[in-house]
Amino acid sequence: MDVGTGALAMVLTDAPIAGLGISDPRTWSPADWTSDALPHLAYGLVTYGLISVAHRHN
Q: Which pLDDT tens digit goes with each residue over 7-51?
């Protein structure tokens, strides 16, 4: 779930960037992908953690 949430966030932010012609992810280097993926992974982990805590307190 946590990785899935981060991956979904990544798709939802990268698709418009590509669609609007702001950037082309197909041309990104491994370092570019890493700098894009890590914040999304962190988002997924934090989101999953907060939802898990909220469910335990209900």
A: 888 888 889 999 999 999 999 999 999 999 898 888 888 888 999
- How far, in Å, CA of 18 to CA of 16, rounded? 5
Radius of gyration (C-alpha) of the chain in whole angstroms? 14
Instruction: Please name the helix (run of DSSP H) or strand (run of DSSP E) that holds residue 37, with its range, or none.
Output: helix 30-56
14 burial (CB, 10 Å; 0-12 / 13-18 / 19+) is middle
CA distance 25 to 4: 19
- Alpha-carbon distance of 58 to 48, in angstroms, equals 16
